[in-house]
Amino acid sequence: MSTKPIILTGDRPTGPLHLGHYVGSLRNRVHYQHEYKQYIMLADAQALTDNMDDIDKVHRNVIEVALDYLAVGIDPKLSTIFIQSQVPELTELAFYYLNLVTVARLERNPTVKEEIRLRNFERDIPAGFLTYPVSQAADITAFKATLVPVGEDQIPMIEQTNEIVRRFNRLYKHPVTKQEILVETKALVPEIGRLPGIDGKAKMSKSLGNVINLGASADEVSKAVKKVYTDPLHLKIEDPGHVEGNIAFTYLDAFDTDKAAVAEFKAHYTRGGLADSVVKKRLEAVLQELLTPIRTRRAELAEDKGYILQLLREGTEQAREVAARTMDEVKAALGLNYF
Amino acid sequence: MSTKPIILTGDRPTGPLHLGHYVGSLRNRVHYQHEYKQYIMLADAQALTDNMDDIDKVHRNVIEVALDYLAVGIDPKLSTIFIQSQVPELTELAFYYLNLVTVARLERNPTVKEEIRLRNFERDIPAGFLTYPVSQAADITAFKATLVPVGEDQIPMIEQTNEIVRRFNRLYKHPVTKQEILVETKALVPEIGRLPGIDGKAKMSKSLGNVINLGASADEVSKAVKKVYTDPLHLKIEDPGHVEGNIAFTYLDAFDTDKAAVAEFKAHYTRGGLADSVVKKRLEAVLQELLTPIRTRRAELAEDKGYILQLLREGTEQAREVAARTMDEVKAALGLNYF
Questions:
Q1: Who's near A154: CB < 8 A, 6+ residues apart?
Q2: Digit-coded pLDDT (tens) for B157-196
Q3: Residue A279 — φ and ψ, nearest 5°?
Q4: What is the pLDDT of residues B191-239, one digit of tens each?
Q5: Rounded to 5 degrees, what are φ and ψ at A194?
Q6: Within a 13 Å sphere around the CA of B297, how many CA atoms are in the beta-carbon half?
Q7: CA atoms of B27 and B6, how far apart (whole Å)
Q8: Cα separation of B110 and B92, whole Å?
Q9: CA B292 to CA A261: how far, in whole Å?
Q10: Residue A307 — φ and ψ, nearest 5°?
Q11: Which GO terms describe its cellular component (chains A, B) (predicted)?
């Protein structure tokens, strides 16, 4: 067994991934896979908790998201990519953890509260939605992950997981070795915060039309860049412009590797004399350079869905073996071993 | 496949079974197994929902309850006896059903409300306890059981199951056959109501010391019968006595097969002149006759725990095959099939 630290990460497959995912997680995963043992979960079961009325979307996007992973350089030889619903041990583990968490505790979870508000569930909260932090605790602990890359807003989920881990370990030990079975985890919060949408809104979403998908065509990228929100007060080229809140610069900061050139652009724009169109031209060049190989590779991979499924099958088998081992230990600790 | 109607029944293995179980369910199961395909579940996973602090009790009593089953005449060739926790498909099914039930609906369940009150959970309700009707729905539907023997107080659980079934069937169909997958179920309420404790209390429990276990020794039976609550106003033999609420007669009604003799005893007792000691002597004879062969067979079976485990293993394998088939259909209907 590998002695590298273990990461669990993943996505809810409800749509193709976009630049926000690239900056917030995908780019990091390409690095992490060398330093860590990385499990990447296609969280289809979790996606169903609020998509029971659109299950086809979830099914379809499992393949789409897998294509995005491979296209950006996640290597299935280094990272274990798996489909959550095909590892039933995760639901089994969640089932037992439900006994270790009170309803009141789940109702107090700030992330869940916020998500409930966003979805306008009000009193009609599906039970599976209220309990999803327990399901996440199962996902994390099944792999004994010590690191989970999340945004600041997801930290309460990590706390909930560790509460379950501590409670379980206090109450139950391995029946033979008397060792603790579960492992506490840590949030790995990326330095770069969330990328805003091209319209400047904090939330990126397909329905808002403010995202650039990783598989976007050259033409789609070009059109999207034209719509990028800049400084609405920067009316004439010679006027001094604002860089702060100017999404063209936010995106250059995120994607342009020539930091000196970006700094110079910012200075020029601030003192006046640099046209939005010039900034956007640079941004488009940077994005096309980033996205062209991704798009090409994605299109090639999409030709052979059988190969993608084969990779997912292999990753899922590996993941299932690890989760089953943890589940066996948990069941032994709970006295649920008879045969 | 058998075309007999399917029953799911079972017990939470938290203690040895007693005469209350015999009258309320075990006796019926011995008959049912000829007319129906009967699955009998040792609900260890469900027992944990409020016994996470005493898991050894649950583990130990799986074998004890299995011994009770076999001793009363449940035939593992006719009935499929299985251990809930060893059929992980049940937790998996419950996980998806959680998305089809709201938290508010669970909180309104009268059976759960009453159980919460009895356990003094107040605000500290384990999430696994609130959601156990969903887990029961999974148990019932995994076997496509059309009949579930329950007391009147459990009818809300059957209603909850059918709500899930109807919602699931309305939303999802088998992707190939386009047929409905889940089957509605019916409560099978036994004609004879709940047997009271020997002290006359409605609730029988080991902690109240008002039960007679199926494995009780002859001496224990004898002592218990002496404690049976009769008519506190029947002070002198020649006084008229009351039969109503007189547990000696309640038990004779339940266990004495000579109904004419019991009727005559009741008449005699009511007009006066029949001593409590005579009634109890008859009751003891009836109970010893019932329990002696059960006790003997139980003791014999207890000699060979390996054999019991082997039976449970076989039953569990059979049950798992059926549950896995249902789970496959459910997953296909939910689009959670990829490979």
A1: A111, A187
A2: 999 999 999 999 999 999 889 999 999 999 998 877 789 9
A3: -60, -45
A4: 777 899 999 988 888 888 899 999 999 999 999 999 999 999 999 999 9
A5: -70, 135
A6: 17
A7: 18
A8: 25
A9: 94
A10: -70, -45
A11: cytosol
Domain segments of chain A as ranges = 6-195+305-333, 206-299
Q: Which residues of B touch A125 (CB under 8 A)?
A: 102-104
Instruction: State both tokens at A184.
Output: 């506490």
Rama region for A136: left / alpha / beta (φ>0; ψ in -120 to 50; rest): alpha
- Is the backbone of residue B216 left (phi > 0), alpha (psi -120 to 50) or beta? beta
Residue where the block lists tokens 């060049």: A285
- Judged by DSSP in three states, B166 sits in helix
- Tokens representing A291 are 């996205």
Task: Find tokens 């006896």 and name the residue.
Answer: B81
Separation between Cα atoms, residue B92 and residue A250, nearest integer Å: 44
**Which 3 state secondary structure label does DSSP give A193?**
coil
A204 token code pair: 């990126």
DSSP B18: B
- C-beta atoms of B338 and A135 within 8 A: no
Distance from CA of B258 to the nearest CA of A (A): 43
**Two tokens at B89?**
């498909």
Cα Rg of chain A (Å, integer): 22
Distance of CA A80 to the CA centre of its chain: 15
B259 Cα to chain A: minimum distance (Å): 44
* Residue pair A42/A15 in contact by the 8 Å Cβ criterion: no
- What one-letter code names the amino acid at B288? Q
Superfamily of domain B6-195+305-333: HUPs (3.40.50.620)
**Facing residue for A336 by CB, picked from B85, B172, B313:** B85
CB A126 within 8 A of CB A77: no
Q: Is A79 helix (H, G, I), strand (E, B) or coil?
A: strand
Please name the member of B58, B127, B338 whose beta carbon is closest to the beta carbon of A131. Answer: B127
- Confidence at residue B152, expressed as pLDDT on a 0 to 100 scale: 86
pLDDT at A151: 86
CB contact at 8 A, B187 and B154: yes
Question: Among residues B246, B208, B286, B244, which one has the least CA distance to residue B22?
Answer: B286
In which order are the strands placed within the sheet that holds B79-83?
B79-83, B37-42, B6-11, B147-149, B186-188
**Nearest by CB: B331 against A85, A125, A171:** A85
CA distance A43 to A39: 12
Q: How far is CA A156 from the centre of its chain?
A: 16
Amino acid at A278: V
The pLDDT-based confidence of A152 (bands split at 50, 70, 90) is: confident
